[in-house]
Design a protein that fits this description.
Blueprint (H helix, E strand, L loop, with lengths): L6 H8 L14 H15 L1 E2 L9 H17 L11 H11 L3 H19 L3 H7 E2 L4 H14 L4 E4 L2 E4 L6
InterPro entries: AbiJ_NTD4
Protein name: HEPN AbiJ-N-terminal domain-containing protein
Pfam family, one: AbiJ_NTD4
Length: 166
């Protein structure tokens, strides 16, 4: 989805409340929630009429949970939640270590970029998806910039950005 230029955002810019220096230590809660929305829209949910015994979106979240859990030496990212989607989202929203938050974002968007993008038409046919991979990546990068968080997803990975000056 496109990033709207809301009245409140315009007013912040007019008052000079917008940061033009990137920071790298905090991923604000508001940005985390926006990332959850982007992931939810781009990974989607299984269409009820198309559903078989396979739930592709839930399998993606299981992959993210299992991959990061193994890397961190844990059995699960966080507690026992009803679905892997819930587990990944709760972890993304609650984790205090900023680098691990970025790990979730990078792995999720690598999956969207490398696995979903090449077969997106078929994936979107089988699943309820609101956002294609290009738009999801574009919105993620726009949200990073909007919150003055000095990262972007580029070339299949999260990289640091040094300046907002154009």
């Amino acid at each position: 989805m496109a990033i709207l230029d809301l009245f409140s955002e315009k007013q912040k810019r007019l008052r000079g409340e917008v940061n033009d220096v990137y920071q790298y230590k905090i991923v604000p809660q508001e940005l985390r929630v926006q990332i959850v929305h982007i992931l939810n829209d781009s990974i989607g949910s299984a269409k009820s009429f198309y559903r078989s015994d396979k739930n592709e979106p839930e399998d993606i979240f299981k992959f993210i949970n299992d991959t990061l859990s193994r890397e961190y030496g844990k059995f699960s990212l966080i507690g026992d939640y009803r679905t892997f989607r819930d587990t990944v989202f709760k972890y993304l929203l609650q984790e205090e270590n900023m680098e691990r938050v970025i790990d979730v974002v990078q792995l999720s968007f690598q999956y969207i970029d490398k696995i979903l993008r090449p077969d997106f038409q078929n994936y979107a046919y089988r699943n309820e998806v609101k956002c294609d991979p290009n738009d999801a990546i574009g919105e993620l990068n726009g949200r990073f910039k909007e919150h003055a968080v000095g990262f972007q997803f580029n070339g299949g990975e999260i990289t640091k950005v040094d300046s907002t000056y154009n």
